[in-house]
Amino acid sequence: MKRAVCRQGGRSGFLAMLAVVTATILLGMRPPPARAQLPTGFIEETVIGGFNQAAGLCFDGQTRMFVWEKGGVIWLVENGVRRPTPVIDLNQEVYAFWDHGLMGVALDPDFAANRRIYLLYPVDWQWYVTGGNPNPNLLDLVHDTFGRLVRYTLTPQYVADPASRTILIGQTHADGIPQTSGSHSVDTLAFADDGTLLLSCGDGAMWWGADTGGARPAQFSTNTAEADGILSAAEQVGAFRAQLLDSHNGKILRLDPQTGAGVSSNPFYNAGDPDSPRSRVWCLGFRNPFRFCIRPGTGSTDPADADPGTLVVGDVGMDTWEELSVARSAARNCGWPLFEGLTNHATYAATNVNNVSAINPLYCTGDNPDTCDPACMRPYFYFRELLVQETQLTPSWPNPCNTGQQIPASVCFMHTRPVIEWRHGTVQTRVPIFLSGSAVAIDIGHPLSNVSGTAFKGATAVGGVFYSGNKWPVAYQGGYFFADSAEGWVRSAVLNAADVLLSVSPFAPSAPGTRVPVCLAADPQGYGLYYAHFAYVAGSGQIRRITFDCNGNGVGDDRDIALGSSDDCNANGIPDECDIAGGGSADGNGNGVPDECEQVLGDLNCDGVVNVLDINPFVLALSDPAAYALQHPGCNILNGDIDGDGMLTVLDINPFVKLLAG
Q1: Are 77 and 59 in contact (CB under 8 A)?
Q2: Residue 274 and residue 169: Cα distance in Å, rounded?
C-alpha cells in the first residue's frame, strides 16, 4: 500500500491551516457551509463524497464527470454515482509527497470520438529507478524528482488502455520537469480552441525561504537533482528558473498534444529542437500557477495564429501576496521571483545570480574583438537586470559594462503585473494603476482604484473558471469565479471584453477547513460551479457545487426537474414556476403552466388569450415558420392548427377567422 505523506497548497502558510483542517476532520465530515452565506437564491450541495484527497474534476461535455485523486487515481462519476472500477490507477508511479501528486487532467477536445485523456504528475523516484518494481515501503519518501505528461486512450468502458500509454514530457528524468522540494510542482492542463495543450509548472524550488541555488533543507529535498541530472547546470539557480527560458519551471507551456513538442508559433520556438523547454514556453515568471483557465470565446482556432486565448492564472505567493494574472498574448513575464505580486520581492530583487543563457556581448570571448569591451568582466547578465517593472514611460535595460548601451532586447522583459493581489493574514487587496506613467499598487477601496470591490485576505490562490451558462441570474453570467483554499472563500469577478478587471465581489464567504476548494469547474449544462473539496483523511474528499435554487426549496434546479418535483415543459432547463416568476414565460390563465406549453387554439402570440393581436403572428406562422419561431420563441406553432389535422396549413385560415369572430 502506498504511503500517503502529503500537504495541499503551495506555500508554507498552508501548514498553519492544518490544525484547523484536522480539527474539522476529527469532528466528522461536515456539510457545506450554510446556504444563507451565499447570494440570494444560491445553495451549496455535496454532489458525491468518499474520495481520497480529491484534487480535481472535469466534464466530458455530456453527463460524465471525471474526478482525480492526489495519489494518482481517476474515477468516472455518472448521474452522481461513481463507477466501481477506476479509469486509471497510477498510485505507485505518482509521487504524492507534500504538495505533489496528480494535479492536472484534461480530456481531448475530440474526446467523444477518440477517448484520449492527458495526465500531469511528478514521478515517484523509487518507482522510476526500479523500473516500476519498487519496495512499497520506500514510495513517497523525500526525493528530488521530475514531472511527467502522459496520454492514454480509454476503452469503450472508460478504462485506460495500458498499451495506449504515450509519454509526452518526462520520458526520462533528464527531459522532465524538475522538482526539488515539497511543493511548486506541475499543476494544470487545459486545451485551447486552436487544439494546442497548455500546462502550468511551478518553479520546482524550495518554498520555505528564498532559493537562489545551492543546498536545500533536508526535510524537503535529497539535494540529488544536480548529481542525478534532473537539473542542468544552467538550472541550478533555485527559483530563478522561473526566469530561465531553458527550463520548464515557473512557466505555462504550449504543446502539440500529438507529440509533446512546442508549437511552431510559440514565442521562443527553436525549429532545431522543438522538444526543448524554450520551444514549449508560452509565458513565464510564475511561482506556483496552481490553477489557470482560458477565457471562453477568446483566441483563434488556428495554432499558427499564436493566439490560444486569454489566460487567467492564479499564482500562489510566498511571503506576502497571492495574485491573479491575465495573459492575453505570448511571452508575458509575470515576474517571479523578482516580483511577488505587484511589487519587488526584496530578497530576490537584490540577489545577483547569473543567467548563463543571457550572454553579455560586451564581454570579450575571442570571437567578438570588434564589439567587446576589454574592461567588461561580466560574461553573463544577472536575472535582476533583465526584467523591469511595467511602465508607460520608456523602459531601459542598461548594460552593466556600459550603461550607455542597452542589453539585447532578445533577453529583456517587462513585468506583466497581476490584475489583483491579496495579502496573507491581513485584510488588504491591491490593484495596479499608473501615476505619471509609473507603476503603482493601490488599495481596491481607494478613489483612484479602477476596480470596484472590498478588501479581503487569503493564503493560497486557486485560479478559477468562467461561468458561460444561462441558468443563473444575468448578473452572474459570463463572470469569472476564483478561490483561496486556505481561507475557503470563492469570489466572483467581472472582466470586460478587453480582459480588464472591473470588479470583485464575495460569492462564497470564508470557511477555513470547512470549504477547501482546490479545483473549480463549470458543468456543460450550466447549472453549477463545481469544486473539489480537499481533505486529508481517506474517504473524506468531496465534489461539491454551488448552484441556483430558483424556487427556494433547497434543491438545485436541475435536480428539481430530474426528481419530478418541478416540470420543465419547454425543455429550457428551468423549472416552469421559475420561468413564470422570472418573466421568462407568460401564464395568461394563471394555472402555473407556461403559455407556450399549452395548446390554446388561436393564441399565436402566447399571451394566453385569442384576439386580433394573434392575426399577424398567425400569418407569419403560416408563411414563414422559421421566422415565427425566432420572433415568438417558445410559442407553440400548433396553436394555429385549428382544424386539428396536426399541422398548420391554409386549411386553418377559415377556422381561425371563425374562432376570432367568436
Answers
A1: no
A2: 12
In angstroms, the CA 180 to CA 232 distance is 13
* Per-residue pLDDT at 273 exceeds 90: yes
Question: Contact, 95 vs 121, CB < 8 A?
Answer: yes
Q: Which residues of 236-269 are buried (b: 16+ CB within 10 A; e: fewer)?
A: bbbbbbbbbbbbbbbbbbbbbbeebbbbebbbbb
Q: Is the pLDDT of residue 445 over 50?
A: yes
One-letter amino acid identity for 489?
W
Q: If we measure between CA atoms, which residue out of 236, 237, 234 comes closest to residue 225?
A: 236
Cell 544552467 maps to which residue?
Answer: 234
Counting beta carbons within 10 angstroms of the beta carbon of residue 374, is it exposed (0 to 12), middle (13 to 18) or buried (19 or more)? exposed
Q: Please, which residues have CB within 8 angstroms of residue 4's CB and are 6 or more apart in sequence?
A: 52, 53, 71, 96, 140, 538
What pTM value is reported for the model? 0.89
Region 27-56: mean pLDDT is 79
* First vs last C-alpha separation in the chain: 81
Question: What is the CA angle 37-42-44, rounded to 5?
Answer: 75
How far is residue 260's CA from residue 479's CA, in Å, rounded to a whole number?
A: 32
Q: Any residues with CB less than 8 A from the CB of 436 and at least 6 apart, and which? A: none
d(C-alpha 446, C-alpha 433), whole Å:
11
Contact yes or no for 530/544 (Cβ under 8 A): yes
Nearest CA-CA partner of 293 in 470, 429, 469, 104: 104
Q: What's the pLDDT tens digit per position in 71-93?
A: 999 999 999 999 999 999 999 99
Residue 5's Cβ-count burial label (10 Å; 0-12, 13-18, 19+) is: middle
Q: Is 215 left (phi over 0), alpha (psi -120 to 50) or beta?
A: beta
Pairs from 468-474 (Cβ < 8 Å, separation ≥ 24): 468/296, 468/522, 468/526, 469/522, 469/523, 469/525, 469/526, 469/527, 470/526, 471/525, 471/526, 471/527, 471/548, 471/557, 471/558, 471/573, 471/574, 472/526, 472/548, 473/41, 473/548
What is 335-388 written as a DSSP string?
A: -TTTEETTEE-HHHHT---EEEEEE-TTS--SS-TTT--TT---SEEEGGGSEE
| Cis amide linkage into residue 337, ω under 30° from 0 | yes
Residue labelled with grid coordinates 495596479: 432
Cell, residue 285: 515568471
169 within 8 A of 147, measured Cβ to Cβ: yes
**Close Cβ partners of 122 (under 8 Å, ≥ 6 residues apart):** 94, 95, 100, 101, 145, 146, 147, 148, 177, 179, 185, 186
Quote the CA–CA distance of 202 and 179 in Å, as a whole number: 9
- What is the C-alpha radius of gyration for the chain, rounded to an integer number of angstroms? 28
Name 50's Cβ contacts closer than 8 Å, sequence gap at least 6: 82, 539, 541, 542
Q: How many H helices and E strands in the chain?
A: 11, 36
Q: What is the DSSP string of 65-113?
A: EEEEETTSEEEEEETTEE-SS-SEE-TTTB--SBT-S--EEEE-TTHHH
